[in-house]
Amino acid sequence: MLASLSRRAILAIYAVIIIIPLTVVAFGSFKSTQELFAGPFSLPRSLAPDNFAEVVGGQNLGSSFMNSVIVTGISVPLTLFLASLAGYAVSRLKGFMAWAIFGFLVLGMAIPAQANMVPLYVLFGRLGLLDNLAGLILANVVSTLPIAVFILGGFMRTLPKELYEASSIDGSGPWKTYSSIALPLSAPSIAAAAIFLFVIHWNELLYPLLFIQTPGNRTLPLALLSFQGEFQTNYPLLFAGVILASLPVVVAYVFLQRYFVAGITAGASKG
């Protein structure tokens, strides 16, 4: 009983910590700058979407939104495809070599992205991948591939080996076994990884900030930085932009929530 109350108290405190800034952002997106600073927690006097209209019409967020859609829409499925192939290969290996390769791939998660900035910038410059969306897509895939392999490979490793043996007896090769057994059975973990990758790639700011110079190639998080100046920040417009940028993530999570929970549950029960 005491433990249950403690958990509820912790969850309540955590919810308050999350709700307070969200409330300020939501209310502030309908206010003027003067009204926002006069009462950050007060209700807006009007619900007129003037800030949203100015953000969409005056800040050229439409092209930035499409750039984010393109980068995220290609990065997520490409990362999942490569991770599922690598995860399946690692899950089928045995002995020390399997753990060595799996550990080498997962080691990528331990290296902070900031440590790769200089060599990555030099390499992309020589390959002509700076200031274009192809470079961003490649950087996103490379940076999140280790954790995607960790999720999918770990799940495929828990699948019953009898299924693989039965497929082999039926004459199926590695590709047939991967496409007809490993991939369909890993659907819950793929859905969970897809949501995780979608949130990361959609909100990615570091790589666009480093690689993109042309305004027309900016992604949505980078475009939101234009609301912040050296001496003054237009917080109402920034909050409206944040609300608009968050909507795709919320919609994706709502539609894929049950798959996300199923993926976590399946992984927990098998582990």
What does this structure look like?
- The protein is mainly alpha-helical and 271 residues long.
- It contains 13 helices and no strands.
- α4 (61-92) packs antiparallel against α5 (95-106).
Task: Looking at this protein, list some descriptive labels.
271 residues; mainly alpha; 0% strand; 13 helices; single chain; 76% helix; globular
Number of helices: 13
Number of strands: 0
Distance between the termini: 28 Å
Rg calc: 23 Å
Low-confidence stretches: none
Strand content: under 5%
The secondary-structure element order is: HHHHHHHHHHHHH
Mean pLDDT: 82
Would you tell me the structural class of the helices and strands? mainly alpha
Shape: globular
Query: What portion of residues is helical?
Result: over 70%
Give a short account of the largest sheet.
Answer: none
Summarize the structure.
By secondary structure, the protein is an all-alpha fold.
Set down the secondary structure blueprint.
Layout (H helix, E strand, L loop, with lengths): L1 H27 L4 H6 L11 H9 L2 H32 L2 H12 L10 H11 L5 H25 L3 H9 L4 H12 L1 H16 L3 H6 L8 H5 L10 H36 L1
Helix pairs in contact: 3-13, 4-5, 4-7, 4-10, 7-10, 8-9, 10-13
